[in-house]
Each structure stands twice: as structure tokens, then as C-alpha cells.
Design a protein that fits this description.
This protein is an alpha+beta fold. The chain has helices at 2-19, 23-38, 72-80, 131-171, 177-192, and strands at residues 42-49, 53-60, 84-87, 94-102, 105-114, 197-202, 209-215. It has a 5-stranded antiparallel beta sheet with strand order 2-1-5-4-3, with helices on both faces.
């Protein structure tokens, strides 16, 4: 019966991961499967945020991101790239944290919590039954991140092309020097997101520069 349950979970998570189109949906499928396989009361998938630390990608049962705090064991599991088990704060009894890797690089971890599961408190040995799931999770999250980067690069390229067209149209709208130079600095400042922009022009002898237009302080 246990093998049938495990096979059912494996098929279900395989389908869910295949359908995952973003980080949240992939993390949700991983959390549900990990909780079922390990008989955990709660599962959380944490992803490394290179700017802000860790963020909660998904939890099972669902939990708001601001209601959970990344455990210290998460940093240890990621640093040593190995499962870490230990006591948990009430209402839970124990915790198991497994690192997530993509191409050998740490991207986060899966946190499992239990109150009084029949098999007893979590230990590092419990991680072995989750090996296949973690491998699938690594591959799926890596693929999702790669697609997200490609999509962002595509949008950035389209945005730059639109800006270039907009700048070209604006500058060709006039042949008079005064409005033209002002249009140049305005567009340069907005395109680059600069605080200020200045346009310096040489005099007839090309021995001296004067400010032809300015935007910002």
C-alpha cells in the first residue's frame, strides 16, 4: 500500500512539475509532494534572493510570505549542501531542511515540519526517501529560472527597441537647434534613468564649450 501511495504521489508531482510555468507553481508542487512523502504537517520552499536574502516561494498548506521566517538550519543546509535535521519551535516537534541546487549552485531549500508523525521526529535519514523529488525540484526550478531570464531579456530588448524608435521620432520632429538639443538631453535622461543630463556644445573656433541644454539639477 505504501509503495502504491508513493507511486501515486510520484506521478502526481511529475504532472504538476511538468505543468509548472513559474517559480510559485513549481514550488507549490514541490511543497505538496515533499509533505506527502515525508508525512510532514507543513512544507515550505525557500528560494535565495541575492538582494534580500531568502523568500518563501510557496508553502503547503498555503502560508503568507510575511507569516514565515527562514530557519537558521536553512543557511547550514545550503552552506554544506546536505540535509539538516533538528528540533523546531512549537507547535512543531522537529524540522528537516534539504538544499536545492541547480548546476551545482545553491538556489534555496525545502523545509519540512512535523508535530507528532507516526515514524517519529525527523532525522537526516528521512532525506533519502526525498532524493528523487529533490532532483526533480532542482531541474524544474532551474528550468523555470532560465525561462524567466530569457523572457526578461526578450522584454528588455523590445523595450530598448521601442525607446530607440521613440527617440528617433522625437529628434526628427524638428530641425531647429534649440528644441533639438533640449529634446536630446530629455531623451537621454529618461532613457538612462539619470538624475540629470547636460549637453555641451563647442563654439565656432572649437576652443570653448558652453552648456546647450540641461535637465535635472
Amino acid at each position: 500500500m505504501a509503495e502504491q501511495d508513493g507511486s501515486s504521489i510520484a506521478w502526481r508531482v511529475a504532472v504538476d512539475l511538468a505543468k509548472a510555468s513559474d517559480e510559485r507553481s513549481a514550488a507549490g508542487a514541490i511543497a505538496r509532494a515533499a509533505a506527502s512523502l515525508a508525512q510532514a504537517d507543513e512544507a515550505r520552499v525557500w528560494i535565495i534572493d541575492r538582494v534580500h536574502g531568502y523568500h518563501l516561494a510557496a508553502g503547503w498548506p498555503a502560508i503568507a510570505a510575511d507569516e514565515a521566517e527562514a530557519p537558521d538550519d536553512l543557511a547550514r543546509a545550503i552552506a554544506f549542501q546536505a540535509a539538516v535535521s533538528g528540533k523546531a519551535q512549537r507547535p512543531y516537534r522537529s524540522r528537516l531542511v534539504l538544499p536545492l541546487l541547480t548546476d551545482g549552485r545553491s538556489i534555496g531549500g525545502v523545509e519540512l515540519l512535523e508535530r507528532a508523525r507516526q515514524q517519529g521526529a525527523f532525522s537526516r535519514e528521512d532525506a533519502t526517501q526525498l532524493n528523487d523529488l529533490i532532483k526533480a525540484a532542482d531541474a524544474t526550478l532551474g528550468g523555470v529560472k532560465a525561462r524567466a531570464r530569457e523572457q526578461k531579456n526578450h522584454f528588455d530588448a523590445v523595450a530598448r527597441l521601442a525607446q530607440l524608435y521613440d527617440v528617433s521620432r522625437s529628434l526628427s520632429a524638428t530641425l531647429e537647434i534649440s528644441p533639438l538639443v533640449q529634446a536630446i538631453v530629455n531623451r537621454a535622461q529618461s532613457t538612462l534613468g539619470a538624475e540629470a543630463a547636460y549637453l555641451w556644445l563647442p563654439d565656432d573656433d572649437r576652443t570653448k564649450l558652453t552648456m546647450g541644454a540641461v535637465v535635472g539639477p
